[in-house]
Design a protein that fits this description.
The protein is mainly alpha-helical and about 100 residues long. About 75% of the residues lie in helices and about 0% in strands. It contains two helices and no strands. It has helices at about 15-35, 40-90. It is rod-shaped and about 85 Å long.
Length: about 100
């Protein structure tokens, strides 16, 4: 009899996700508002706005890469576990050894 391995559930709750999304939105809004109200000319504001855009998109890309690497390692772990379960299920400790 083989034992099925259930996929790992995500430890992220809805409340944690909402808190993270709200804090990200608030931080981004505050930064954009700060840039908009800086006492400098438009070219400097545009440069800072492009910097914020680049940092924000880079953060999302990095988070996606980290998530993908974590998912890949979890898939490999599940495959290894399935192989081990199959070997253990096929093993008969009472079978006489053959020469």
């Amino acid at each position: 009899m083989t034992k099925t391995v259930s996929p790992a559930s995500s430890p992220t709750t809805v409340a944690f996700f909402a808190q993270a999304a709200l804090s990200f939105g608030l931080a981004l809004f505050a930064l954009v508002a700060g840039i908009a109200f800086l006492p400098v000319n438009g070219w400097i504001r545009a440069f800072l706005a492009l910097g914020v855009l680049f940092v924000t998109t880079s953060a999302f890309t990095l988070a996606k890469c980290v998530r993908d690497r974590q998912e890949d390692s979890s898939i490999l772990t599940r495959v290894d576990q399935a192989r081990l379960d199959k070997l253990l299920a096929e093993h008969d400790p009472y079978k006489a050894p053959t020469l």
